[in-house]
Design goal:
With about 575 residues, this protein is of the alpha+beta class. The chain has 18 helices and 19 strands. Helix 11 runs antiparallel to helix 13 (about 315-335). The termini are far apart.
Length: about 575
């Protein structure tokens, strides 16, 4: 009898232990292993490309196999994405590239689009000063002067090793042979058919009577011919001659304002990378006109005094600290950041540790700080979700982090007739009217007002990390206003929560951008219990669809490379 009672008691104790274990595992934090089905990403010995499309990654990798460096692979991958990934890959848009050479030299290439000469500060407002819905996002008037081709030419001239024509040819072959559509790509084209027809005076090849389906082959004949001109004539294959004439003709057909002179005048710019430190790591990122580098360093500096590792991944304290830092960073972004060729950007002051400490001093862990009470910091006063990112490391140790974009999905929806490429809608990244949100909900100020030849503010955050003077991580993502916070969380996931690169990329994310005053989170982000804690403190939470497609490379202790290819898309790694 005593033995039976003991067994019964043991069974009850075991049941109680199991229940407690279950409750504990589902309370304040998620475990790292819950964030992804795959603990470790694809491993390569010497070289790696991680991009939004398997064909683009393959082409970049094959360039390095032929003896090309990371910069050659960047050119080849960029042009391949223009073919294989038309939703964001482009020659009709622009972007940013951060590089770190094997010897530690760093640089930043800005090939952001510019406002046409005929642009004006009030061009998207009616006579009463009201913003005209859709004018800065859809159609010919939404396009800025493209910068991608000039950027790739500049990159190759400075750092490339293989002949230019060898880097463009793979994209030409891909365009002619066609790209087999994945389910996501077919769905994207189908959802955009009506918008493409509405914003073109001709019927682009991306539209057909029957729905696109996975397994269909999409061929780009006109784009192939445009790429051939770029292959043979370099910059003049796009900004002059037949391609330029087709683009200007398209502008006149649809009421756009990009002129022949705009194309002739466009030039990308080499800039000094924004650099800072987070604990034992050096962070190298993009300067203005991207807000990404400054904002990322602000977030890292604001978060450093808090023991995020001890708090736990997506614990109530970690989510609160990150949210409060984000709302302050985005308030500063709206006020002080713009094209440094037009406004004085107070970079040094924004990154000053004492300033950032002061900004966080108003945070109270027992309650939320309403965004209505958070303004831009007191500094001296001075007068865009579908993007794509790729990361590359070559056998010598050169690293490239590139983010490039059309802005919205399929940009302005305008396809240049006879040239086969889609134009951006980057003009919406300006403050079309100070204080009025853009398509991503971002509020801007006078510093980002429209002016001829000015570059619009961006959130793109191509980033490279060093540790002990050696390459450690290459990272970036698309995602409009969520880019900065996605890159930040991927970095923190590795550095503070010991995730693998793949786990860090796959982990569910959350986002706050000052206005609107809400924590947006993916379905699996932030446990139910933590959401309740945050709600009781006064935070508003809102579930949204998955966002961002972080593509990253981590250098492992043994020198091998681990890819983090975002499962939210068709992203893939290729290496050797």
């Amino acid at each position: 009898m005593h033995q039976n009672l003991t067994k019964a008691a043991l069974c009850k104790l075991w049941l109680l232990f199991t229940i407690c274990l279950f409750l504990f595992s589902n309370c304040a934090t998620h475990s790292v292993t819950d964030t992804t089905a795959h603990a470790r990403g694809y491993i390569a010995d010497k070289a790696m490309v991680v991009s939004a499309h398997p064909e683009a990654s393959r082409i970049g990798m094959e360039v390095m196999k032929r003896g090309g460096n990371a910069y050659d692979a960047t050119v080849a991958t960029q042009f391949a994405l223009a073919v294989a990934f038309p939703v964001a890959g482009n020659i009709g848009g622009g972007g940013f590239t951060i590089y770190r050479s094997a010897t530690g030299e760093t640089g930043a290439l800005d090939y952001r689009e510019t406002a046409p000469l005929a642009a004006s500060e009030t061009m998207y407002q009616d006579s009463a000063g009201n913003v005209v819905t859709g004018l800065s996002t859809d159609g010919h008037l939404a396009a800025g002067v493209p910068g991608t081709v000039d950027g790739m030419v500049k990159l190759h001239q400075k750092l490339g090793s293989l002949p230019w024509n060898e880097l463009v040819q793979p994209a030409i072959d891909l365009a002619r042979n066609g790209v087999v559509l994945t389910p996501k790509e077919a769905d994207g084209l189908n959802r955009t058919q009506e918008a493409i027809l509405k914003n073109n005076r001709h019927k682009p090849y991306l539209v057909r009577p029957q729905a696109w389906k996975a397994g269909d082959t999409l061929r780009h004949e006109d784009l192939a011919r445009t790429l051939e001109r770029i292959r043979d004539k370099g910059r003049d294959g796009f900004y002059a001659g037949e391609t330029a004439a087709l683009l200007v003709k398209e502008m006149k057909r649809g009421g756009g304002i990009i002129s022949k002179q705009d194309l002739e005048n466009y030039t990308s710019v080499w800039r000094e990378a924004v650099e800072g430190n987070y604990k034992d790591y050096k962070v190298i990122s993009m300067p203005p006109p991207s807000s990404g580098g400054i904002a990322l360093l602000q977030l890292l500096t604001m978060g450093e005094p808090y023991d995020l590792r001890k708090s736990g991944w997506q614990s109530a304290e970690e989510v609160q600290v990150i949210t409060e830092a984000e709302r302050r960073v985005y308030a500063d972004r709206a006020t002080y950041l713009g094209d440094p060729d037009f406004v004085a950007v107070p970079k040094r002051e924004l990154l000053d540790k004492s300033y950032l400490t002061m900004r966080m001093s108003t945070m109270q862990l027992d309650k939320a700080t309403p965004s209505s009470e958070v303004k831009a910091g007191q500094l001296p006063v001075y007068e865009s979700e579908q993007t794509t990112h790729f990361s590359i490391v070559d056998p010598a140790g050169n690293a490239v982090s590139t983010t490039t974009t059309l802005n919205g999905a399929y940009g302005s929806k305008v396809v240049v007739e006879g040239a086969g490429f889609i134009l951006n809608n980057e003009m919406d990244d300006f403050s079309v009217k100070p204080g009025v949100p853009n398509m991503f909900g971002l509020v801007g100020g006078k510093a980002n007002a429209i002016a001829p030849t000015k570059r619009m503010l961006s959130s793109m955050t191509p980033t490279i990390l060093e540790k002990d003077g050696k390459l450690f991580m290459v990272v970036g993502t698309p995602g409009g206003s969520t880019i900065i916070t996605s890159v930040f969380q991927a970095i923190v996931n590795v550095l503070e929560h010991n995730m693998t690169m793949q786990q860090a990329v796959s982990a569910p994310r959350f986002h706050h951008q000052w206005l609107p005053d809400v924590i947006q989170h993916e379905p699996d982000a932030i446990s139910t219990e933590v959401r309740a804690i945050l709600t009781n403190k006064g935070y508003k939470l809102e579930q949204r669809s998955p966002y961002g497609r972080v593509d990253a490379i981590l250098v492992l202790p043994n020198g091998k490379l681990e890819a983090g290819a975002d499962p939210r898309g068709d992203d893939a790694a290729s290496g050797f």
